[in-house]
Every structure is written in structure tokens, then in C-alpha cells.
Design a protein that fits this description.
Blueprint (H helix, E strand, L loop, with lengths): L20 H25 L8 H4 L5 H20 L25 H18 L16 H11 L5 H25 L17
Helix pairs in contact: 1-3, 1-6, 4-6
Length: about 200
């Protein structure tokens, strides 16, 4: 008996269910709904009036305005890209290349709470976009007013899409937590197999 060793089982990782196809499509769609308005702002940065009159375009020709528009376009696209993390493995575990925290499991609330707040803010921010043409845009040409309004319409979907993907993420991880509580612990002395890794 003294030569026998008793193995204690390590907890087995219970992975969340894979995201539904609609959630994957919605997450990827967020990057596309942001793109048209971002490209329009980049056109302004490059010196194209992009629908503005000569007088209206003057305020966009300063270095500060160009830097702001470029930064806004990049940040919007990066924020939209983060939605994909809610349906990809790097939304479950921090990528290993990130210093100090790489490889750690992402706590669901650290993803759900910011995503939910962001979805609410984006929904409120772009709620009036469908009524773009009911507002006066004296600094734009008639054609510019029409085209820019069309380019901004997809932003109306950003908040609802993020909200839907966030709800899907929350439901999958809530189910994982429930399964973890229901899984009985292994008894000491039972053979221990390889731990399951999430994909």
C-alpha cells in the first residue's frame, strides 16, 4: 500500500456550446456596417470633398480634423472587430501573445457587461440615422447629402447586431456555468484522462 499513489482528479474544463450560425454571421456583419462611413471619412482625410460644398469642406482640411477623422474611423472598425471575439476562441481565452494575461480564461461578465453597454450606447447614438434626410445639411451638395446619408444608414444596425451577439454569448456561457455545477466531482483514485481543451 505504501507504494501506491492516489491520484486526485483535476477539474475538467467544460466548454461552452458553439455559437449559432446566425450569431457568427451577425458578428462578422458588424465590421461591414461600420466600413462605408469609415471609408467616407478617409476620403475626407485624403482631400476629397466627399459631398461637401467648398465652404463646408474647409473645416475638414485642418491637421486636427484629419487626425480626428482618421482616428475615429480606425477606432470604430476595431470596436466592431471586437464583436467577432464573442463568437471566436479568443473570446473564451485571452490570446497567448498578450503579456501577463495570455492564455487565461475570459470571465463571461468581463465580456458581456462592456458589450451590453456598448450595444446600448451605439443603439442610442445612431437611432436617428434613418431620418438623415429630414435634417438640413446646408454644408453639403444635394447629391452629397443623398450619398452620405446612404453610407451612414448601416450604422443603425450596429447596436442591435452587437446586442444580439452579446445575448447569444451570455446564454452559451450561462449554460456552461450550469453544467459545471451539475457535473459531479470525481472520486480520488479514479483514473484521470486528459483534460478537455476548448477549441
Amino acid at each position: 500500500m505504501s507504494g501506491m499513489s492516489i491520484h486526485t482528479a483535476e477539474p475538467t474544463a467544460i466548454c461552452p456550446a458553439p455559437p449559432p450560425r446566425w450569431a457568427v454571421l451577425a458578428a462578422h456583419l458588424t465590421t461591414w456596417v461600420v466600413l462605408p462611413s469609415g471609408l467616407w471619412r478617409i476620403a475626407l482625410v485624403l482631400g476629397f470633398p466627399a459631398g461637401y460644398t467648398d465652404a463646408g469642406f474647409e473645416s475638414f482640411q485642418t491637421p486636427g480634423a484629419k487626425a480626428w477623422m482618421l482616428t475615429l474611423s480606425v477606432l470604430c472598425e476595431l470596436a466592431a472587430f471586437l464583436t467577432i471575439g464573442l463568437v471566436r476562441p479568443w473570446g473564451e481565452f485571452v490570446p497567448r501573445w498578450i503579456p501577463l494575461i495570455g492564455g487565461r480564461k475570459v470571465r463571461p461578465l468581463t465580456a458581456v457587461v462592456p458589450a451590453a453597454l456598448g450595444a446600448a450606447a451605439l443603439t442610442a447614438l445612431w437611432a436617428l440615422v434613418p431620418w438623415w434626410w429630414t435634417f438640413a445639411h446646408h454644408d453639403m451638395t444635394p447629391t452629397g447629402n443623398l450619398v452620405v446619408g446612404i453610407l451612414y444608414q448601416p450604422l443603425f444596425l450596429w447596436g442591435p447586431l452587437l446586442a444580439a451577439v452579446t445575448v447569444s454569448y451570455h446564454r452559451r456561457h450561462r449554460g456552461t456555468a450550469a453544467r459545471s455545477r451539475q457535473t459531479p466531482p470525481r472520486r480520488a483514485g479514479c483514473p484521470v484522462g486528459p483534460s478537455r481543451r476548448c477549441p
